[in-house]
Amino acid sequence: MWFLIIEFIIMFIGLPLVVYLEIFRIPKLLVLSIITIYCVVILVRQRAFRSIEPTVSRKSYMKKIMRRFILLAIVMLLLTLVISPKTLFTLPRQRTALWLVIMFLYPLLSAFPQELIYRTFFFHRYASIFKSSILMIVMSVLTFSFVHIIYDNIPAIIFSLVGGYLFTRTYHESRSLLLVSFEHAIYGAFVFTVGLGHFFYEKF
What we know:
- By secondary structure, the chain is mainly α.
- The protein is about 75% helix and about 0% strand.
- The chain has one domain.
- It has nine helices and no strands.
- Helix 4 runs parallel beside helix 9, helix 6 crosses helix 8 and helix 8 runs antiparallel to helix 9.
- It is globular, with a radius of gyration of 17 Å.
- The termini are far apart.
């Protein structure tokens, strides 16, 4: 139990703070890759992937995800017009090649690893610590939002809090890494497309 608590503190509180405070200058993608590998090793050794079966029909739940996405995409579009009108569709219009690269790589290098860590690994690994479903959901949402302090802006944390709730709810209801990764990917792709990506990548 104590090992799990220490592991949780290091992975989900300590490492984000180390990156944010630039105690060690480590590329964010490298940190994500190392943590992902660690989580995969743990899940494979404990045969967690075999025991995690989707609890819903992927086809029917995909429709639910898309209906919700269409509604929230409109909200994000309007929000961009209000808080960052100058960046509206800037990336696909002015840096099309980079935008295409992000559309291709984001699901593979960002959305999937994050969902594996913050949903599949988190729910499996810390079930003995966060014993109630509500507490597990709350902690998954909060830690997911907290890691976005690495981008050093309030909107990234707020957007991630909302996104974290959506993704955690999807995983809690479906137990499907595929579904939640897809949902994360389409929101992330739209964020970069619509003009909010600069909150999540300091070079934009």
